Amino acid sequence: MTLALDEAILQTVIYADIFDYPLTLTEVQHYLLYCSAQRTTIEHAVTSSPLLQSQLIQRAGYLMLRERAGLEQVRAERGQRAMRLWRLARRWGYWVGCLPFVRLVAVTGSLAVNNPTRAADIDLLIVTEPGRVWLCRALMVLFVRLVRLTGITLCPNYMLAKTVLTQKRRDLFIAHDLTQMVPLVGHAVYQEMRAANHWTEQFLPQALTPLQAEPELSPRGIGRWLQRASEWCFAGRLGDLMDALERRRKTSQVRRRYGEIAYLSETVLLDPEHVMAYFNDHGAAVLKKFSERIEKISVTMTHA
Questions:
Q1: Full domain range(s) for residue 133
Q2: Nearest 5 degrees, angle CA 208-CA 209-CA 211?
Q3: Do 165 and 242 belong together in one domain?
Q4: Same domain membership, residue 158 and residue 17
Q5: Global pTM?
Q6: Do 143 and 270 belong to one domain?
Q7: Does residue 30 sit in the same domain as residue 101?
């Protein structure tokens, strides 16, 4: 799919608007949909395209829909909140990376783009060694509960093994999630995951690296020692047994609560290599809203 540059810019802004997120020109260039263009070319289009002039406004360095003027204030408030959450994400993300068999810890969700609401948590994607996803999940549940005592909520929303980095679901929402995530621990594994998902370039051809780069927080000192010692303890049959028991316990719990129908969803993956359980498909709702907004503007332009 390819779009004219002005249409691509407009759709990029519309998608971000679903999240109350006005964009800088740098962000428009980075997340430009279905199209590649230099910043100077984008700047020229913004100031000269009749379509963009009629639909967009630029204020305080941000590009937004005309009817959504004022979002720059929301962005500023959320940016301040993001600064605090990032300090916590780095601190606790490091210790998550010290857990046994963890090979990648990446920040995802609204914090990854500095757009957290007041209710936002610190969302994490975690990659583990194969055969230890569920053991890691059990340890993460305990870790999350301990951290919650400090008033901080960590959400390990998606855990998967290094052997299944390629994502089966391929749409704009997942492409954004993958390109927006910011690695804290395991930059090499992050690069492997991006390489395994080149399909994201069909949607976001210029979002090839994280827009926000974080220095790698490799386990060191006592953290590295604890990781090696615990991996030695759980490397054999004990680890196999604990991994299998945790998977059996959690999947049985899900069946009792949601029934077998839960496993028909693309957003629920509970198998030996995945732990993902989004029972409300937020991505589908976002894409539906995006499609409706594009259609609404198309109708408006047709009757203008």
A1: 79-280
A2: 120
A3: yes
A4: no
A5: 0.92
A6: yes
A7: no
**Hey, is 59 helix, strand or coil?**
strand
pLDDT category at 304 given cuts 50, 70, 90 is very low
pLDDT in the model for residue 232: 96
User: In this structure, is residue 285 part of a structural domain?
Assistant: no
Tokens of 218: 């490799």
Residue whose structure tokens are 């059990």: 138
Amino acid at 28: V
Q: φ, ψ for residue 208 (rounded to 5)?
A: -95, -20
* Residue whose pair of structure tokens reads 């601190």 in the numeric block: 91
Total domain count for the chain?
Answer: 2
For 140-199, how does the pLDDT look when each residue is reduced to its tens digit (9 = 90+)? 999 999 999 999 999 999 999 999 999 999 999 999 999 999 999 999 999 999 999 999
| 204-239 as b/e: b if 16+ CB within 10 A | bbbbeebbeebeebebeeebeeebeebbeebeeeeb
At 195, list the tokens: 């390489």
Interatomic CA distance for residues 165 and 250, integer angstroms: 22
234/243 Cα distance (integer angstroms): 10
The pLDDT score that the predictor gives to residue 262 is 53
Residue 118 has pLDDT above 50, yes or no: yes
Biggest CA–CA distance in the chain, Å, is 69
